[in-house]
């Protein structure tokens, strides 16, 4: 029997790589009723369930284009989880063996996700943090193990914290998508900072389109180096963000100000995104929305301002704590 003829073949994607980007924007009108409006870009809808799929594709493609990586050669990266999951998507499709080093403080769900996509995840013991709370020292420990493996195996090191393709991914995709989807109506952009790729690339594009646009960095309270404050609380719930240092990819020229958010505020808005909007997302997403609410309620922007932010990843990447969810038998 002949296989059925598929109609509308132009709608069929050739691989998971074509599922990256072009995520929808949703208005959070149930969670926040004004003044102004919060629009959230649904980055958890990428195939690796986070915004990091964008930079993963760009960084690997750049390495291939520049002959730094050859087809089939091994790849290594140090990750808090999301970059690793994004790279696992890309490397599975392109058939590159992938090894990832990640602090044991990052959620085990991320390691499970990476392994399911064929990657090897090496979980590195923490130096000073606790499970769910990862410090810069913990990241450095994972980095040291990753670099040791690179030295031993010759694997291509992606190096997301220093890779300009990380920023370029958001300059060429996230920013233009936001501009198109809002019809050019963006008064402010708000984002947490890990590598700074998302904030730097997106804000650069949006400010080129509208020099009056305001861009705000979201930092966890007590770990605000971009605000140039001493680190008083290195442990916080924003995995993959707020490491207590200014990332090399960060650029002050596109930032107007910073907004600090507490763990409690991040958890509160993470929960509201679920119960009010039907969106199960992670802690940095909660922090982004908390910061957007603070900004609009501050009176800094016009009453009819539209603030765009990102919902960075799925809540399925985290281990819920007892105070966040009640399960009945």
Automatic annotation (TrEMBL):
This protein's record includes keyword Amino-acid biosynthesis: yes
Name recorded for this polypeptide: Beta-cyanoalanine synthase
Gene Ontology biological process terms, A to Z: cysteine biosynthetic process from serine
Domain Tryptophan synthase beta chain-like PALP positions: 18-312
SUPFAM superfamilies membership: Tryptophan synthase beta subunit-like PLP-dependent enzymes
Underlying gene: BSAS2
Pfam families with a match to the protein in the record: PALP
Family, as annotated: Belongs to the cysteine synthase/cystathionine beta-synthase family.
One example GO MF annotation: transferase activity
Keyword presence, Amino-acid biosynthesis: yes
Domain of life: Eukaryota
Entry keywords, A to Z: Amino-acid biosynthesis, Cysteine biosynthesis, Pyridoxal phosphate, Transferase
UniProt cofactor(s): pyridoxal 5'-phosphate
Annotated InterPro entries: Cys_Synth/Cystath_Beta-Synth (IPR050214), P-phosphate_BS (IPR001216), TrpB-like_PALP (IPR001926), TrpB-like_PALP_sf (IPR036052)
